[in-house]
Amino acid sequence: MAAEHRPDDYRPKLRVIERGRVSSVGDGIVWIDGLPSARMDGIVKIDDGSEALVVHLTARRIGAILLTATPSLMAGCEARLSGDELTMPTGDALLGRVVDPLAQPLDGDAPIVCEQLRPVDGPSPAIVARDFVDRPLYTGNKVVDTLIPIGRGQRQLLIGDNGTGKSTLALDAVIAQRGQAVRCVYVLIGQKRSSVVHTIDMLRRHDALAYTTVVVAEATASAGIRYLAPFAGCAVAEGWMAAGHDTLVIYDDLTTHARAYRELSLLLRRPPGREAYPADIFYLHARLLERSTRLAATGGGGSMTALPIAETEQGEIAAYIPTNLISITDGQIHFDAALFARGLLPAIDISRSVSRIGGKAQHEAIKREAGRMKLDFLQFLELEVFTRFGAKLDAGMQARIARGRLLRAIFAQDRLDPHQPADQLAWMICCNEGLLDGFEGDDLQAMLRRLREGVAQDALALDSPRERWLAAIHRWLAAES
Fold first, then answer.
1. d(Cα 110, Cα 91) in Å, to the nearest integer?
2. Which listed site, 71, 84, 152, 341, has its alpha carbon 20 to 30 Å from 412?
3. What's the pLDDT score for residue 6?
């Protein structure tokens, strides 16, 4: 360097740059010798243009997930540490978009441009940064919003056998957020392309894609990309939560995610544990779901509600992954295959479903009307068994059975038809006042439709006095009779 171009503070010194070498590549995993300063979740750049994420450290080599790979990647390529961590862009530019876990667009539109970036696998908020869950999040499902309520910031597990309606309820919950100022993230993990297209089409058809981001890791993606999918979706929702917004994130589903992590761990030669899952599978899902919470006002007051989905086999909720997720979440909604086979839809088993903190977030008017409904319905399910044997019942038990059958008929709901909170308060008041007694089948459904039309016409608020609600209900029913 010429003296006239040399800065005054320039001091020549020895600079050491670590260089590693790729030893093997395969199944989405790259092994690299060297790089002693590598750390977990650091990004490695390979000279051919590929990038990898460090997920395994040994004394002499590192194991990394391939994020991008070129056709020229092979053993012998040199690699170096970038000093960066894997991040996800966050912001309103993601609304209405379909992306992969690396934020690459899958919908054919322009690349994602966001000013804010968040770590994909970031820490969960501290306890002092959180607030109580005291505001409801309505799913539009009559059973859930009445008997198993969910609060904003809660983690509620959807669990059941394959094909029992878990994803349908999740879609209903997203559609029900239209006009509720809730931004949604739907994460599809290891799904077939036909299932992915169907989900996106349903969201678009019900005008829900405008406030939703869909993160997709298809079944054909590598195990590493499927492993990153829920963390990427969580980072997107976390960005909105930090900005003070309410968010809803769906993980569909974490059983497939656990299998992807097991595949990844076996490829990295980690010792297998129970059912060949690695020992840290519980920690994996715990650190993901713990990021869902409601922030205190000092942190913006936003919230992230999580609806993780878990699949069971033959209704066995005591299996390894389901029990892990049940212990992490704040409650579960159990879908029963026997109820589904009998046509009792949604096939939610009330006796196995619980919401541990949702009752504190339920609106006072709905909580007052719901009252003893869950207990009455559970007692009805027990009494119904005796009726199958022709047992003679007294008048009190017959009245309980009649009320239980009425509730079961009311709880029947078509898929992708979420109900507004006011609709649900209307039928609960009618049920408690005895205005629906004696109605069955089509007559009952016609009565419920009249109530929905009346609520839409008068636009009564949940906070309106009960007397006003009751007067409006009598007016709607009288006008139709």
1. 15
2. 152
3. 60
Exposure b/e, 349-374, CB count within 10 A at least 16 = b: bbeebbbebbebbbbebbeebbeebb
What architecture does CATH give domain 20-85?
Beta Barrel (2.40)
List the chain domain ranges: 20-85, 88-361, 368-480
> Residues in the chain with pLDDT < 70?
1-6, 388-391, 480-481
Catalytic residue, from 356, 415, 449, 468: name it: 356
Q: What is the CATH number of domain 88-361?
A: 3.40.50.300
| pLDDT attached to residue 77 | 94
**In contact, 51 and 225? CB cutoff 8 Å:** no
Q: H helices then E strands: how many in the chain?
A: 14, 16
DSSP states of 50-105? -EEEEEEE-SSEEEEEEEE--TT--TT-EEEEEEEE-EEEESGGGTT-EE-TT--B
Question: pTM (2 decimals)?
Answer: 0.92
- Tracing tokens 């159990």 back to the chain, one arrives at 334
The per-residue pLDDT for 24 is 94
pLDDT at 391: 63
| pLDDT given at position 374 | 87
Pick the closest to residue 452 from 479, 425, 471 (CA basis): 425
The top-level CATH class assigned to 368-480 is mainly alpha
Please give the structure tokens belonging to residue 323.
Answer: 């029990």
Q: What is the pLDDT of residue 396?
A: 80
Task: Give pLDDT tens digits for 64-92.
Answer: 999 999 999 999 999 999 989 999 999 99
Q: Is 287 a catalytic residue?
A: no
User: Which tens digit of pLDDT belongs to each residue from 5-25?
Assistant: 667 777 777 777 789 999 999
How many Cβ atoms from other residues are within 10 Å of residue 442's Cβ? Answer: 8
Which amino acid, one-letter code, is at 195? S
Distance CA 360, CA 216 (A): 34
What is the DSSP secondary-structure string of 172-211?
A: HHHHTTTTTTEEEEEEEEEE-HHHHHHHHHHHHHTT-GGG
